[in-house]
Amino acid sequence: MSDETPLKPSGIRSLRPRKVTIGRPEPVRRTVIGSAGTTRLAMYESHADVAPAEWAEHHREQLTADMHEHGGVYFRGFGIDAPKALERFASVFVTDLFSENGEHPRVTGNGRIYTPVFHPPEERLLWHNENTFNLSGPTRIWFACVRPADQGGETPVADSRTVYERIPHAVREPFERKGVMYTRSYGTGLGVHWRDVFRTDSRSAVEDQCRAAGLSYTWRGETLHTSCVRSGVIAHPVTGQPTWFNQAQHWHPYCLGAEMRQAVSAVFDEGDMPRNCFYGDGSVIPDEDMAEILRVYDEAELVLPWAAGDVMMLDNLLMAHGRNPFQGERRLLVAMGGMITYPVAEARP
């Protein structure tokens, strides 16, 4: 006799099919990338045919909260790879896209979308917050990838709050107390010419712009020399957090690298270099202090590989950006907006 119990037909009929609902994946998935205590970004990945501007409009409150918490938001899979698409997307967040930035080349036929500043592809462009040497500048900046480089070309970011906290007090304090003096020489053969930056051939028009921007200026032949003092640290107008907000690591001769610094110093005196910076009282910022600042940035940065159609939206007051060396063709678009007047440093002894 078998130990098996045969299945009766009635038992089979009682197994009625049950309706099973398989959940569809969310069209856009949110994660947070990066390491706590260094630099983090909110990341939104689209897995469906989403209209970017309309979707951003519907989620603007959450995206703005992400900006204040993390300093930036990364969008992948949204297919934003043309000037008009970037302009529509950025205009969801600001009403005043910047159209007067002489540092960045404009995209042909579009006065509010730019391409990145030229920098030799074999060199690293160090971290900086945009336009910290000006009286006013953007609170928001967008980078859109049209074509990633064959190799490298990432846009590293570093949380300026983290940088501020990690720079030793003895290094940080003179920047807070004195501010930063930026000196610049246009028309030396290195860097952009004053005609390109000020978008005019008229010296008197340049002088008017200098006065309006709080720049001291002198002419030496065809070369324009300017100087100004700006804050080294500011408090974010919404969060109130202190943030490292200067371009010393972008202007100081130490940051050129030994070989380039030697070449530039052989041609220009300290006061005639295409770019230089000092403490706000004109005293020299020590090389060893700059080395410490670069170390902090190196440890704090977050690097993501670009893919075509990606967009990175940064709070320019909370997040610095740079560019890694690259090979092959690399095409990015840039938009800026949400213009404010930055706090002006008052150098104290």
From TrEMBL:
<dbReference type="InterPro" id="IPR003819">
    <property type="entry name" value="TauD/TfdA-like"/>
</dbReference>
<protein>
    <submittedName>
        <fullName>TauD/TfdA family dioxygenase</fullName>
    </submittedName>
</protein>
<dbReference type="GO" id="GO:0051213">
    <property type="term" value="F:dioxygenase activity"/>
</dbReference>
<feature type="domain" description="TauD/TfdA-like">
    <location>
        <begin position="52"/>
        <end position="335"/>
    </location>
</feature>
<keyword id="KW-0223">Dioxygenase</keyword>
<dbReference type="Pfam" id="PF02668">
    <property type="entry name" value="TauD"/>
</dbReference>
<dbReference type="InterPro" id="IPR042098">
    <property type="entry name" value="TauD-like_sf"/>
</dbReference>
<keyword id="KW-0045">Antibiotic biosynthesis</keyword>
<dbReference type="InterPro" id="IPR050411">
    <property type="entry name" value="AlphaKG_dependent_hydroxylases"/>
</dbReference>
<keyword id="KW-0560">Oxidoreductase</keyword>
<keyword id="KW-0408">Iron</keyword>
<dbReference type="GO" id="GO:0017000">
    <property type="term" value="P:antibiotic biosynthetic process"/>
</dbReference>
